[in-house]
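Sample entry (284 residues):
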Amino acid sequence: MSHDVPIIVDSHVHFWDPGKLRYAWLDGLPVLNRPMLPTDLANASASLRLSKFIFVESSCDASQSLAEVNWITGLAETEPRLKGIVASAPLERGKAARADLESLARHPLVKGVRRNLQGEGKDFLKRPELIEGLNLLPEFGFIFDLCVRADQLPMVNELVRSLPQVTFVLDHFGKPAVRNRSYDPWARDIRALADLPNVSCKISGLTTEADWAKWRNEDLEPYFKHALDCFGFDRILFGGDWPVATLATSYHRWVETVLALVPDASDRERTQLFQTNAERIYRV
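Predicted structure, serialized as tokens:
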């Protein structure tokens, strides 16, 4: 089997410009608090075969969500590889979120929605209004990106189970505490989640859950193998999580790490992981 550099469809990249939109979370991360644009991604991924990528909302001020979509749509005019947008929407407003979704649906690049849940309490995931809002997504053909902490996974399981008609994608392996070598209950919760056919898992964001300066492939391997064992090659998709991931890894090193952790994958399986699953799920 060849280990040639695969064609990459990156299911998870971010762009931001603090001069255009407000990102409060960047205040505490000065190393990232500057414009991060498609030209920067092109430089970071130079010599790799990055053929398409999907922008995921970058947690700007909630009032600017549609402005973010408009800005990214403009970027796509000069960056043809930018094929999709996962936009932010206030799904916790329940049926009232329909107007937000209708606005997003006017932008052909919007393929899905992410209401970032990792900062919310456990009860938030049980709100009837959130379930109502999520229930609207299939009508618009939108998938839902799940950005959650490992301790939220039991509630996520309940949520996904209650919405079998919604397509979910779990970001960043569900954020296991790699740096503490914490494995259970994350592993049990991931297996339960993978038992539900309407959820896939992004192979993304693991290095920033590890020791940023000292992580090695061996630290990531148990989580990687478990996710692969649970979801299989039909329901995993590569995500670079650039530029957040640059806190712990270069783009090249992450691609090399993912390749190194699937040494026995067939060419077809590697193509699914790096390319075709993302194309299918996000319709790009």
